[in-house]
Structure prediction request, 213 residues.
Amino acid sequence: MYRLHGFCQSGSTYKVALLLRALGHPWQPEFVAFMDGVTRTGEWRTATNEMGEVPVLDDGSRRLTQSGAILTYLARKHGAYGGRSEDEALEILRWLLFDNHKFTSYFASYRFLKAFGPAEPDPAVMGWLRGRLDNAFGIVDAHLKTRAYMVGGEITIADFSLCGYLYYPVEESGYEVAARYPNIGTWLQRIRQAPGWADPYEILPGERLAPRR
Prediction:
């Protein structure tokens, strides 16, 4: 059985959980007290992940970190959601890199600073992030104008990766995705029909927290 280390506010953990549920493979969540700072301790980094991040996936004696690497590993191992050709696999990788570097990166940082950060965020920083995520979301919305999924004609790990932070309550980010980007909104509704789809706060461990601001 897989063990998935993470917590319910982590969209990157949610990406992996969605894939595990779609695969129908048994897995066990392991709570990581990220909000209490456990991942910043030397003990946790030595024992679990030197990068100080979740998700972490244990597959027997093999331990994997970084959501893109984990998604790729699971897709290859189970022969599903990884594309139907080498060209599709490379296109999936292209979007995974874009997601990790820009799409999720800017949005997750913006959401964390607004909803869960320890202090009032700097307006200049928030404005910079907002501009960057506006651009990234616009790229994905335009891409989805003529297709049902990010790559090919069916759902892949590119979709699971890009959607990871977009099912959290809008009050956490203050950023209304579906209204601003109708093609992304339609795509998110389509992903809800994937096998095993569920809300992140229903399937991941930890306490749901009210946004601080």
Q: What stands out?
A: Residues 23 and 80 are 8 Å apart (CA to CA).
